[in-house]
Structure formats: C-alpha cells, structure tokens
C-alpha cells in the first residue's frame, strides 16, 4: 500500500490547502512511466518524514480541475504547499538524493 495518500478535486482543499504542515503534491497519471518511477521514492519520503511532511498524489486524468488550476502541463510535477499556497515546484522524475536535497527545508524535524 502506498504511503502517499490519494487526493481528488473534491478533497484537495481539506487535504492540502488547510493542512497544518507542508504538503508535497505529486501530480501524476497511471500511463506515465516517469511517474511510476518516482512513486516509490515519494512513498519512502512519506513514511520517513510523516511527522514533518504530508505526501499526497493527485491523478491529473481523474482530477483535471485541480491540475488545470495549478497549471500542470507536464508530469510528474510535484508542488510543495505551505500555508495553503504553492511554495516550490519540481518537474520530472528526480532521483531520491536530488529530491531529498530539494525538499530538505520541509523534511526537518518540527522539534
């Protein structure tokens, strides 16, 4: 089972915009090989950093409203939301080390 939870157009506001911690949203599609390649990395981040970062997945084919609202034209695209706003965008299937480096400010302990 995936550690990154699915979100939809209907649940996006509650799950992402109203979250009390940063949220990494993976905009993806089932037919996208690079999306499938990055998925296990995101699951590991979700499991390893559950206390400081929430990781969710939004299927752009099933949820076109949110994808269009945030200008998603290439997948995989990952956006970090903090305080209800997008604060970082990453495009493409990055290796784990690069992804962790890009996300380091959001992976730090809340303590």
UniProtKB/TrEMBL annotation:
The positions annotated as site (Deprotonates C-terminal active site Cys) read: 26
Pfam families per the record?
Thioredoxin
* Disulfide-bonded cysteines: 32-35
Q: Which GO terms describe its molecular function?
A: protein-disulfide reductase activity
Q: Which SUPFAM superfamilies match?
A: Thioredoxin-like
Q: Which UniProt keywords apply?
A: Disulfide bond, Electron transport, Redox-active center, Transport
Residue span(s) of domain Thioredoxin: 1-111
Listed under GO cellular component are: cytosol
The protein in question is named Thioredoxin
Q: What gene makes this protein?
A: trxA
